[in-house]
């Protein structure tokens, strides 16, 4: 299971003078190009449908190994595959995979993806950081990376 931690609300509000949730309530585009698969047109569900799948949870501090990705959203899938292959000896059945986005594919330029690729670890080592515990909006996703865009 992958948990996506979206941490861009303050920056979004600064740039658009509204919160992401308010913006998404009024965006009526029924479809958009998938940034991971350029030729694929995604159809969106309603704001209410997506809202039902979000859970607000208190999470403890999480020690993770991470690598920052900056580039095109379409290249994110390939970077995940390289990242997982490179660290396959450190990942096991209980490892939690996470993405921490600093940009939103709906409103950001397709070439301006900023994302930390993370997996949970038990011990501090080079390349680890702590994701501070607190209140998070959780949208759990299980599936293929190319299918994630239309569910977020």
If you had to describe this structure to a student in words, what would you say it looks like?
By secondary structure, the chain is of the alpha+beta class. 21% of the residues lie in helices and 34% in strands. It has 4 helices and 9 strands. The chain has helices spanning 9-16, 20-26, 47-52, 76-86, and strands at 2-6, 31-33, 41-43, 55-59, 62-71, 97-101, 113-120, 128-131, 134-141. The strands form 2 sheets. Strands 4-9-1-6-7-5-8 form a 7-stranded mixed sheet, with helices on one face. β2 (31-33) and β3 form a beta hairpin. The radius of gyration is 16 Å and the shape is globular.
Total helical segments: 4
Shape: globular
Succession of helices and strands? EHHEEHEEHEEEE
What about the largest sheet? 7 strands, mixed
Query: End-to-end distance, in Å?
Result: 15 Å
Helix content: 10-25%
Mean pLDDT: 79
Briefly characterize the structure.
The chain has helices at residues 9-16, 20-26, 47-52, 76-86; strands spanning 2-6, 31-33, 41-43, 55-59, 62-71, 97-101, 113-120, 128-131, 134-141. It is of the alpha+beta class and 152 residues long.
Furnish the topology, listing elements before pairings:
Elements: E1 2-6, H1 9-16, H2 20-26, E2 31-33, E3 41-43, H3 47-52, E4 55-59, E5 62-71, H4 76-86, E6 97-101, E7 113-120, E8 128-131, E9 134-141
Parallel strand pairs: 1-6
Antiparallel strand pairs: 1-9, 2-3, 4-9, 5-7, 5-8, 6-7
């Amino acid at each position: 299971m992958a948990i996506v931690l979206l941490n861009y609300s303050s920056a979004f509000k600064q740039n658009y003078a509204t919160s992401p949730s308010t913006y998404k309530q009024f965006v009526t585009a029924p479809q958009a190009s998938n940034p991971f698969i350029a030729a694929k047109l995604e159809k969106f569900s309603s704001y209410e449908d997506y809202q039902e799948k979000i859970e607000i949870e208190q999470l403890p501090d999480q020690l993770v190994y991470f690598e920052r990705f900056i580039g095109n959203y379409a290249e994110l899938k390939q970077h995940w595959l390289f990242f997982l292959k490179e660290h396959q000896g450190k990942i096991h059945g209980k490892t939690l995979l996470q993405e921490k986005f600093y940009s939103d594919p709906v409103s950001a330029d397709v070439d301006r993806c900023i994302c930390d690729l993370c997996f949970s670890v038990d011990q501090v080592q080079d390349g680890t950081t702590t994701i501070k515990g607190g209140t998070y909006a959780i949208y759990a996703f299980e599936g293929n990376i190319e299918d994630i865009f239309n569910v977020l």
